[in-house]
């Protein structure tokens, strides 16, 4: 059987600033996931900022899974997770005065 | 349909609940993936910023097991997974998913689907008026016209229950996108211009809390030859299509034989609204 896969664009070019989290994404069918963060535009210094992968029992309440993505100079950063239950999202906080636009892709595979 | 054809359909539990025309164009059971359904995005040129802002964030569909904080996994009507569309938690937000194919014969086409909709179960309240609308549209083109039948169930509007079906034939203005005069865009799902389908009040089985799903049957027939909507049905109610028409637009470049189908959900409050589609069957007669 071919392995099912799907990439969802969970954030696309909206301006992110302060504390933010991507929308809940249901993906209990998948066994592995990669969050790709492609930065389109950055304002202020966001190097060293970490984004936390979060999991949830119900899509409403969230906790850190333990995987973090550290933003650097590169256009694309990523974090890999497996064994994550039914929901995933990415949460972070940008420093005061900083913002970014990014395409955040959630690549899922059964 | 001929007797032996019906017998073959009845032998397959995933097909026996449908009444397709002789040719099945696609049958999407979301236990087998998202099967070509994708987030709708607006047209753009050079930069995403050139897109009409209403199209910027239509949200990606997902495969849902219908899992809730109180009872766990509800599953779908058949099997575990349905296609889920989710808005953001902002009144008026819309999520739209689309599947794009083309037609090979200009004749009758029938959409059938099993679906349900719910608000996010973030409050311990009935929440029956939290979802504003769910809808379905065809986006079609032949040699003369691009025509777009739109049909929605207006559940509630600004906190007031409505519970009836509407259609939209009023066109929204086209805007040039980018600077090369190659691309235009129009936001056809704008809240303006909706008209009532005659005598279309219909109470659906919402049930009593946000985490209980009951699935509904939907059928919409169009005729590609006459450019008419010929049948609208939800569960046991067949609605009167007298005077119900599509948006009509002169044929546009690069859309020949287009046969697109889209579902959407809109929230009435600052809470996520969810549309769940168990399965979709698109059939034609040729």
CATH architecture of chain A: Sandwich
Radius of gyration of chain B: 19 Å
**Hey, roughly how much beta strand do the residues of chain B contain?**
over 45%
Biggest chain-to-chain interface with counts: A-B, 21 and 25 residues
Mean pLDDT of chain A: 97
Q: What's the architecture of chain B in CATH terms? A: Sandwich
Total beta-strand segments of chain B:
21
Give the integer mean of the pLDDT values of chain B: 96
Global shape of chain B: globular
- What percent of the residues of chain A sit in helical stretches (DSSP H or I)? under 10%
The major pleated sheet of chain B works out as: 9 strands, antiparallel
CATH class of chain B: Mainly Beta
What secondary-structure arrangement, pairings included, does this model have?
The complex is a heterodimer of chains A (110) and B (286).
Chain A: E1 5-17, E2 19-21, E3 25-26, E4 32-43, E5 50-55, E6 63-70, E7 76-82, E8 87-93, E9 99-109
Antiparallel strand pairs in A: 1-9, 2-8, 3-8, 4-7, 4-9, 5-6, 5-8
Chain B: H1 3-10, H2 13-16, E1 23-29, E2 38-39, E3 62-64, E4 67-68, E5 72-73, E6 82-86, E7 94-102, E8 108-119, E9 131-141, E10 145-148, E11 150-157, E12 160-168, E13 175-177, E14 183-185, E15 194-201, E16 216-223, E17 228-234, E18 237-239, E19 247-250, E20 258-267, E21 273-284
Antiparallel strand pairs in B: 1-21, 2-7, 3-6, 4-5, 6-21, 7-20, 8-16, 8-21, 9-10, 9-11, 9-20, 10-19, 11-12, 12-15, 13-14, 16-17, 17-18
Write up this protein.
- The complex is a heterodimer of chains A (110) and B (286).
- With 110 residues, chain A is an all-beta fold.
- Chain A has one domain (5-109): Sandwich (Jelly Rolls), CATH 2.60.120.
- Helix content of chain A is 0%, strand content 63%.
- Chain A is built from no helices and 9 strands.
- In chain A, the strands form 2 sheets. In chain A, strands 2, 3, 5, 6 and 8 form a 5-stranded antiparallel β-sheet that branches. Chain A has a 4-stranded antiparallel β-sheet with strand order 1-9-4-7, with no helix packed on it.
- Chain A is globular, with a radius of gyration of 14 Å.
- By secondary structure, chain B is mainly beta.
- Chain B has one domain (18-284): Jelly Rolls (Sandwich), CATH 2.60.120.200.
- Chain B has 2 helices and 21 strands.
- Chain B has helices at residues 3-10, 13-16, and strands spanning 23-29, 38-39, 62-64, 67-68, 72-73, 82-86, 94-102, 108-119, 131-141, 145-148, 150-157, 160-168, 175-177, 183-185, 194-201, 216-223, 228-234, 237-239, 247-250, 258-267, 273-284.
- In chain B, strands 2, 7, 9, 10, 11, 12, 15, 19 and 20 form a 9-stranded antiparallel β-sheet that branches. In chain B, strands 1, 3, 6, 8, 16, 17, 18 and 21 form an 8-stranded antiparallel β-sheet that branches.
- In chain B, strand 17 and strand 18 form a beta hairpin.
- Chain B is globular, with a radius of gyration of 19 Å.
- Chain B starts with a helix and ends with a strand.
- In chain B, 39% of the residues are buried.
- The chains are: A mainly beta (110), B mainly beta (286).
